[in-house]
Design brief:
With 143 residues, the protein is of the alpha+beta class. Helix content is 20%, strand content 31%.
Length: 143
């Protein structure tokens, strides 16, 4: 058991958990505009711990913005990619296995993962913006 917050624990392999978190953040970095913000939220509720990563989006070569409706589960399939563009700036292989690995880690720990577009209404001047949110949910308990 690993402690998340004072008195709250989860049955996780910390190395795999860190690998999943790093992969989700790296994915957000690769598919966000340069110098944009990436928000990482941690939330502990009654019996779950949620980690969410929210990032701005770029329009890919097909004109798609974010994760199109109906593709939310496909991004977890091995070798599936919404874009053919490879970002050389992160020294990754970009085979389309990152989110597949994350899903396997999360589900092996009894958790769930979801990725979808959200609308950010926080900037009154520029109006609503579409962002991508990837959330991982783990079960927790208290001792």
């Amino acid at each position: 058991k690993k402690e998340f917050f004072g008195g709250l624990y989860a049955e996780i392999n910390i190395n795999y958990f860190i690998q999943a978190v790093e992969e989700v953040i790296l994915n957000a970095m690769k598919y966000s505009p340069a110098s944009s913000d990436i928000i990482v939220l941690f939330m502990a509720q009654k019996d779950t711990f949620t980690l969410s990563v929210i990032n701005d989006i770029i329009t890919n070569e097909k004109g798609l913005k974010g994760i199109p409706m109906g593709y939310e589960n496909l991004v977890f399939e091995p070798f599936y990619r919404l874009t053919k563009t490879v970002n050389d700036g992160y020294h990754t292989l970009d085979y389309g296995l990152g989110l597949t690995l994350v899903e396997k880690i999360v589900t092996k720990h009894g958790g769930s993962i979801a990725i979808n577009n959200i609308t950010d209404h926080s900037d009154i001047k520029s109006g609503p913006k579409i962002k991508v949110e990837c959330s991982m949910v783990f079960k927790i308990s208290s001792l």
